[in-house]
Write a structure and sequence with these properties.
Elements (H helix, E strand, L loop, with lengths): L2 E18 L2 E15 L2 E7 L10 H13 L11 H7 L11 E2 L4 E3 L9 E6 L5 H14 L4 E6 L6 H11 L5 E5 L7 H7 L7 E3 L1 H4 L4 H6 L5 E4 L7 H9 L4 E4 L6 H11 L29 E2 L4 H11 L2
Parallel strand pairs: 5-6, 6-7, 7-8, 8-9, 9-10, 10-11
Antiparallel strand pairs: 1-2, 2-3, 4-12
C-alpha cells in the first residue's frame, strides 16, 4: 500500500484579539500534515504557542517538506514529531458509533454567560491587589452549578500565589489554578501543591519534562492540563486519558479545524471536562458547525469532510 504525504500552512484570525499574560494574539498559523494510506486519511498539526513552545515555523516547514518526500520510517523529525505522532495514532480509527464528550470548559469572555458547567478565566493581567477583589466579586456572582479554572499563564511569583491561595480558600467552585508560576519554581510548585488550599494544575511545566516517564511519576492529586498539539507521543496521551487515577485535562492550542478534530477525538477518552473552546473562530471561513456545538461528539467531523476542506484549500 503506497503512502502519500502532504502538508500545508493554515492561518486563521481570532474573532477579536485574545489577551493573555504573555501578550495579545491577533491570528494563528498552523502547519498541518496529511497522510493517505489507501482509503485511510489522517491529519496532524504543529504550531508555535507563546509561553509553551519556541518552535520555529520555517524550520518545521522544511522538515515537513523532507517528511513528505521520505520513505524512511525511521527518519527523525523533531520539530513536527507531535503532528506525525497524531496522524499515526488510533484516534483516527473510525468508530462504530459517536461518543458524547463531557461538558467542555468554556473560556470566560468568549461566549455567553453560563448557568452550569465549567468556565476558564485568564488572570495575572493586573497586580494582585487590583485583580483579586475583581475576581472574588465575580466568583460570588456565579451560579452555584458553575465550576471555575483560573489560569495565570506562569505570571505569578511565589508570593503572588500565596496571596491568591489565601483569597480563594473556601471557594468550592474553584477546580484549580493552572500553572501559576514559572519554570524557576517548578520544583517548589510541586511541593507546595501538596498543601495548597486550592488545587494546582500543571500546564507549561509538562512541556519541560524530559519524557513520558516523568509524567507517570507525577503525584495523582495534580491536574494535568495537556495541549496535545505540543506533545510528541500521542500513545502516552491515550494511556493517560484512560487511567482512572489521573486528572487529565486536554486543552486547545487554538488549532486549525484539522487539529481541532484530532483534539476532540482524543478528548473523548477522558472523563474530565476538556478545554475545547472555539468561539474565538466563530464565523471564520472553513469552520465546521460540528466544532461549535454546546455538546460535542467524537468524531465530530468525518475524515472525508476534512479531506474535502484540504482540497478546497489547495486548489
Amino acid at each position: 500500500m503506497k503512502t502519500k504525504r502532504r502538508y500545508l500552512l493554515f492561518q486563521q484570525s481570532f474573532l477579536s484579539p485574545l489577551r493573555t499574560a504573555t501578550g495579545v494574539w491577533q491570528k494563528r498559523t498552523s502547519l498541518v500534515l496529511r497522510q493517505d494510506e489507501g482509503a485511510r486519511v489522517t491529519f496532524g498539526e504543529v504550531a508555535p504557542l507563546p509561553g509553551h513552545s519556541d518552535l520555529n515555523l520555517n524550520t518545521a516547514v522544511q522538515e515537513a517538506k523532507v517528511w513528505s518526500e521520505s520513505t524512511d520510517e525511521n527518519q527523525k523529525f523533531p520539530h513536527i514529531s507531535p503532528a506525525i505522532s497524531c496522524l499515526n495514532s488510533k484516534i483516527w480509527n473510525e468508530q462504530s458509533e459517536s461518543l458524547q464528550l463531557p461538558l467542555i470548559a468554556r473560556l470566560w469572555g468568549m461566549s455567553e454567560a453560563i448557568s452550569h458547567g465549567v468556565v476558564k478565566r485568564k488572570i495575572g493581567l493586573l497586580r494582585p491587589n487590583e485583580e483579586i477583589p475583581v475576581v472574588i466579586k465575580w466568583l460570588k456572582s456565579l451560579p452555584s452549578a458553575v465550576q471555575v479554572r483560573l489560569d495565570p499563564n506562569e505570571s505569578f511569583s511565589r508570593d503572588d500565589l500565596l496571596r491568591w491561595s489565601d483569597a480563594l480558600d473556601g471557594f468550592s467552585s474553584i477546580q484549580f489554578i493552572e500553572q501559576p508560576t514559572g519554570p524557576q519554581d517548578d520544583d517548589w510548585l510541586l511541593e507546595y501543591s501538596q498543601k495548597s488550599p486550592v488545587p494546582i494544575a500543571l500546564d507549561e511545566a509538562i512541556g519541560r519534562m524530559h519524557s513520558s516517564f516523568d509524567l507517570h511519576q507525577l503525584p495523582p492529586h495534580l491536574f494535568l492540563v495537556i495541549k496535545p498539539t505540543l506533545f510528541s507521543d500521542w500513545n502516552t496521551l491515550i494511556r493517560l486519558a484512560k487511567d482512572p487515577v489521573r486528572k487529565v485535562i486536554f486543552s486547545t492550542s487554538f488549532e486549525s479545524p484539522f487539529g481541532y478534530e484530532a483534539l476532540i477525538r482524543l478528548s473523548a477518552l477522558s472523563p474530565h471536562s476538556s478545554g475545547l473552546e472555539r468561539a474565538c473562530f466563530l464565523g471564520n471561513e472553513h469552520e465546521f458547525s460540528a466544532h461549535h456545538q454546546p455538546i460535542l461528539f467524537s468524531p465530530a467531523v468525518p475524515s472525508a469532510n476534512l479531506a474535502n476542506l484540504w482540497q478546497a484549500l489547495t486548489k
